[in-house]
Design goal:
mainly alpha, Serine Threonine Protein Phosphatase 5, Tetratricopeptide repeat, 20 helices, about 0% strand
Length: about 425
């Protein structure tokens, strides 16, 4: 971090003796601010430098700066603006360089990442495959791009609910970053965070804590504990604490992460919406139902602004809202929200996805409470079939939920 701040000081002190050089310095200052995650200043200085740079055909230097601006847009949640700039860069590099050029792999990976965030899983998969092809041709000279791509492919598999495949790919990525590419500290921290998320889903809580804690320490040592990427760790650690029943600790960790997102990004950033939804879950489990609904409402408003209407995060948040209404004995609203959420999961992922299966378990809980025994049994059997397709063992945490609900149904008249 000291190097970045030293660069800022040096660049800010440059005299305006040569307009082109000065404008380039402004752009470089914007890039440096991006690394310190002062995104508003980063955007400001890149805007000041980029439009006035020479070379109407966009030389490599200018194109790299456009690429940096696209990354800033992505961090700020301006996903569509980011894709426009990335595709502009892709077009320029494709014309100037052979297909195996490493920069192409970076651009393709970034485009795929945004499609993944937006829930365009098929499109993201296609783009990652192209990037993978470029990386294989260029692997000997820059395998760090390959390791970063693996992190994104692992995150894609996590997003569609294939956690075992995600674990395998992320472990490969982590091995590369831990070994021959250990200088890429932030990318390794990001990979560890993704791995911790997957371990949590698989019920491997000790491994999840280890991965997230190591990621946190990397940010603490080399970057900043207030780096927005580290907020992911805090929220994930909060989720793990919640699963252990440590609700006070969970709430404190998630609130800290949410505040970092708010300060670094904006009140309507998708990451903040995600953190707010998890605060809602903690409040519901802590029997603070009105607070839970307030958090879910805030989260839902953010998702509506930032995400497509059929995004999985919206469906996920809606299901947890349904469960909150269920605990409040408002069965009508619970059934309405739960049914809509489950239907959207089926449309997004298909009936055999683990994501849909998880939603089916929650909807089954609602059906049990409203007395729809047969509908609940159908949903639980569907979930069991989906999980057997992926896991084929009883160690996966969701199996326990299914069998507990099936036993509860046996006791009903």
């Amino acid at each position: 971090m000291e190097i970045f701040y030293s660069n800022i000081k040096e660049l800010e002190s440059c005299k305006r003796t040569h307009s082109d050089i000065y404008r380039k310095n402004l752009s470089l200052l914007g890039v440096t601010y991006r690394f310190t995650f002062d995104l508003k200043k980063a955007e400001k200085y890149l805007d000041l430098g980029l439009p006035k740079l020479p070379n109407k055909n966009f030389d490599i230097f200018t194109t790299r700066l456009i690429l940096e601006k696209a990354k800033i847009y992505r961090s700020l949640g301006k996903y569509h603006q980011s894709i426009v700039l990335l595709e502009q860069c892709l077009d320029i590099f494709t014309k100037q360089f052979p297909e195996q050029h490493v920069i192409l792999a970076f651009i393709l990976t970034d485009i795929g990442m945004i499609h993944r965030i937006l829930g365009h899983y098929t499109k993201a998969s296609e783009i990652f495959e192209r990037s993978l092809s470029v990386n294989k041709n260029h692997l000997k000279s820059n395998a760090a791009t390959y390791a970063w791509l693996l992190t994104q492919i692992g995150s894609l598999n996590r997003g569609i609910g294939d956690y075992l495949r995600a674990e395998k790919i992320l472990l490969e990525s982590e091995k590369l970053f831990r070994g021959k590419f250990s200088e890429y500290k932030e990318l390794r921290a990001h990979s560890l965070t993704a791995l911790g998320f997957v371990y949590s889903k698989l019920g491997k809580y000790d491994k999840a804590f280890t991965a997230l804690d190591e990621s946190y320490k990397i940010y603490e040592k080399y970057f900043s504990v207030d780096n927005p990427r580290n907020a992911w760790n805090l929220v994930q650690l909060g989720i793990l604490k919640r699963k252990q029943g440590k609700l006070k600790e969970a709430e404190e960790l998630i609130q800290k992460g949410e505040q970092i997102f708010l300060t670094a990004f904006s009140k309507n950033h998708v990451e903040r919406g995600w953190a707010l939804a998890h605060l809602g879950i903690v409040c519901r489990e802590n029997k603070k139902f009105e607070e839970a609904l307030a958090y879910f409402n805030l989260s839902n408003n953010i998702f509506k602004i930032t995400l497509p209407s059929n995004h999985a995060l919206i469906s996920w948040q809606m299901m947890h809202t349904a469960l909150t209404y269920l605990t409040l004995k408002d069965n009508e609203k619970a059934l309405k929200h739960g049914t809509k959420s489950y239907t959207q999961f089926k449309e997004i992922f298909g009936i055999s996805s683990t994501q849909t299966a998880a939603a089916a378990i929650k909807l089954a809980q609602i059906y049990i409470e409203v007395g729809e025994k047969e509908e609940a049994i159908k949903l639980l059997k569907s979930s069991l079939h989906a999980y057997n397709t992926y896991y084929k063992n009883s160690n996966y945490p969701e199996y326990k939920k299914i069998y507990l609900l099936l036993n509860k149904l046996k006791q009903l008249p």
